[in-house]
Design brief:
12% helix; mainly beta
Length: 279
């Protein structure tokens, strides 16, 4: 959900709740026979189906999946389970009674990445936050695999040049798209370059795991860097005399671009789940 070079900090020595994100291990008993055939890892059918569909759907920058393609990807993601990516709800990370010291960091792992799309998982500890940020020129599919979280999202009222990096920072009017609590298993959500809640934030109510498909992925070289925002109530600033009732104003807000917040920094870990067959 944000450029890896800025948002993800790789750490070789895992501490705190990071050590509780583990992959399911299968013990293999040793045989006395000299000719031992090592088991070949089996890629879950749903994960491989997702990968193949992504290769067909995502054509690079400037393209948006067709409605039928969106429907197919949502169907596949709706069937995704923790086990498809080598995880289990019995892992210590997902236990509610596991204390988290200090400000809990989000953990991030990449399943696959190319120029056209990326597959990644975000692990949010209880009370963990991914602050309000955008997805410039991107289509993003999010599937909540585990947990309960609050999602808040906006779209620009005037999307023209909304992601122009040369545009000076200013408060801009945005329309509230989502402000709800979601519990797994929930339907896959989809955001588009200028609609569907392109600017969103996640707040974990319980420990969560979210599978994201980003097409195309963030890239500073291609001007698809991540921007962060601070919310202001609609009534905080003038809107050129545009009249709104108090109830209507609740559906809008002013967003101010800010520097990368401290709580947006993530810890990256190696993906150790089933490996995709890139054929």
């Amino acid at each position: 959900m944000a450029t890896e070079t800025r948002m993800v900090e790789q750490r070789s020595n895992r501490v705190g709740h990071m050590s509780k994100v583990q992959y399911v291990k299968r013990d293999i008993k040793k045989r006395k026979c000299r000719d031992i055939k090592r088991p070949v890892p089996v890629v879950p059918m749903t994960l491989q189906e997702l990968f193949v569909a992504c290769k067909e759907v995502f054509k690079g920058p400037g393209t948006v999946p067709l409605p039928c393609e969106v429907e197919n990807l949502c169907r596949i993601l709706d069937n995704m389970k923790l086990e498809d990516v080598g995880l289990s709800n019995n892992l210590p990370f997902f236990k509610h009674n596991v204390p988290v010291k200090g400000s809990p960091r989000v953990i991030y792992t990449t399943i696959y990445k190319c120029d056209e799309f990326s597959l990644c998982i975000f692990f949010l500890p209880e009370t963990g936050v991914i602050p309000l940020h955008n997805h410039p020129g991107m289509t993003v599919f999010s599937k909540l695999l585990m947990g309960k979280m609050h999602i808040k999202s906006y779209d620009w009222v005037d999307p023209t040049n909304s992601d122009d990096p040369t545009k000076p920072c200013e408060k801009r009017l945005a329309k509230l798209k989502t402000d709800s609590v979601f519990t797994s298993p929930s339907s896959t959500s989809v955001l588009y370059p200028t609609s569907g809640g392109n600017i969103h934030s996640f707040t974990a109510i319980t420990p969560c795991a979210v599978l994201d498909v980003l097409g195309p992925p963030y890239s500073m070289d291609d001007d698809r860097d991540c921007s962060y925002y601070k919310e202001h109530p609609y009534g905080s600033f003038s809107n050129g005399g545009m009249a709104m009732t108090e109830e209507e104003a609740k559906g809008y807000g002013w967003l101010e671009e800010i520097e990368m917040p401290e709580n947006s920094r993530m810890d990256g870990i190696q993906y150790l789940g089933p490996q995709i067959m890139d054929i």
